[in-house]
Design brief:
Helix content is 68%, strand content 0%. By secondary structure, it is mainly alpha-helical.
């Protein structure tokens, strides 16, 4: 944990290596985390400024809960790096949470090392500072709570805590909306409990949206326009490059896939951990504006429910993680001549090109293949893998 935190702090404060580190850093999203928080500190409404077109190149494209977290952070130190340090702290927490969640699993040490030092997280969550670190913290807490016995004599039951954490995930990034139905079914003993838990989820989400109401509605208007056009490395962008994009067909396929996952859960062919990972996979892959960071999030969810600790699989995961990070980094960079290098984009393609999109999916395809193969062969996946003795 300390090594992972030290690495992140070095990348935030690289000293004499600043120019070299910054060459591979993408602060586009970080600026859009910092500007709204800084604006909120002055007493202005960042959502209203963005909606009115007075924010220039900056956006307040986040839920109110996320904005509150960043505002509190820059209130301590009004600097963009304060948010990076916040993400580094959550990454350190994530490494510790993986140790707790996977304490009886063969995944424990390999996953902790991979999360701390692996190219998938170091590039996609650190050199490209992203809020997904906080989402992963909530996810690991959710998974841990789901491993606990239901009859624990806590003042607040594990099932209630599961619903609250899922609501916090939904309040932060709406990711839990993809697996909300099976999750409520899992923690509810009867119809009355199902309704009660559903109302609790809705109440937490509603409370988290009280700040800056109703100005934040523009966030959802903006996102609706984004999900109608293929971009980044989404499957929609891939199909669009091949001349096969059809919004209705993609949405229909996503709905069918999601219903199939729910049905597999209902008939007990997959457990709740597999259901969450697969639902997030389908939900994220469907969005036409999915970028490499979202794809890495899908991979991390899948890595939680499949055994990748054999030597061959470890080499595959680490190797393809390095390859995916390199593709993302190289495809978005220019100026290689300054370092005496040829334009490496001849290998990866420019960002968003058909070549770049295809190369970005290699790790995802491999990990999904591991899961499907192990499921077919009856090997340990999901809960059995996470909590086995």
């Amino acid at each position: 944990m300390l090594i992972g935190l030290a690495l992140r702090l070095f990348l935030i404060f690289p000293g004499p290596l600043t120019s070299k580190v910054e060459f591979f850093t993408n602060w586009a999203d970080l600026r859009n985390y910092y500007w709204p928080a800084q604006t909120a500190l002055t007493g202005a409404n960042p959502y209203a400024l963005w909606a009115s077109g007075k924010s220039g190149e900056f956006r307040a494209d986040m839920e109110p809960l996320e904005l509150l977290v960043y505002t509190a952070t820059v209130a301590v130190w009004n600097n963009m790096r304060a948010i990076q340090m916040l993400f580094a702290l959550f990454d350190a927490i994530n490494i510790a949470l993986l140790g707790l969640l996977l304490k009886n699993s063969p995944l424990r040490l390999p996953f902790q090392i991979f999360y701390a030092l692996g190219p998938l997280t170091v590039y996609n969550l650190v050199l490209v500072p992203e809020d997904k670190t906080i989402v992963l913290t909530l996810t690991f807490v959710l998974f841990y709570l789901l491993t606990l016995p239901r009859d624990l004599s806590w003042r607040v039951s594990p099932g209630t805590l599961v619903v609250i954490v899922a609501a916090l995930i939904g309040s932060f990034k709406w990711l839990s909306a993809f697996f909300l139905l099976p999750l409520l079914l899992f923690v509810s003993q009867d119809v009355r409990a199902f309704v009660k838990n559903g109302l609790l989820f809705g109440a937490v989400v509603a409370l988290s949206h009280l700040p800056w109401i109703p100005a934040w509605l523009y966030v959802y208007e903006f996102r609706f326009t984004r999900v109608t056009a293929p971009m980044h490395v989404s499957l929609s962008a891939l199909l669009n490059a091949l001349g096969l994009f059809n919004k209705t067909a993609i949405l229909g396929a996503a709905v069918v896939a999601m219903l199939a996952i729910y049905a597999l859960f209902w008939f007990k062919r997959i457990d709740i951990f597999e259901t969450i990972a697969l639902s997030v996979m389908v939900g994220v892959l469907w969005t036409p504006d999915m970028d490499p960071v979202h794809l890495s999030l899908v991979v991390i969810y899948l890595l939680l429910v499949v055994d990748w600790t054999s030597r061959a699989r470890l080499l595959t995961v680490w190797g393809l993680s390095a390859w995916g990070a390199a593709v993302y980094a190289i495809s978005t960079r220019t100026g290689y001549a300054r370092y005496g290098l040829p334009d490496l984009r001849i290998v990866t393609g420019v960002y968003g090109s058909l070549q770049m999109i295809v190369l970005s999916y290699l790790l995802f395809v491999a990990v999904l293949g591991f899961y499907l193969y192990d499921k077919w062969r009856g090997r340990a996946v999901g809960k059995i893998l996470i909590s086995r003795e």
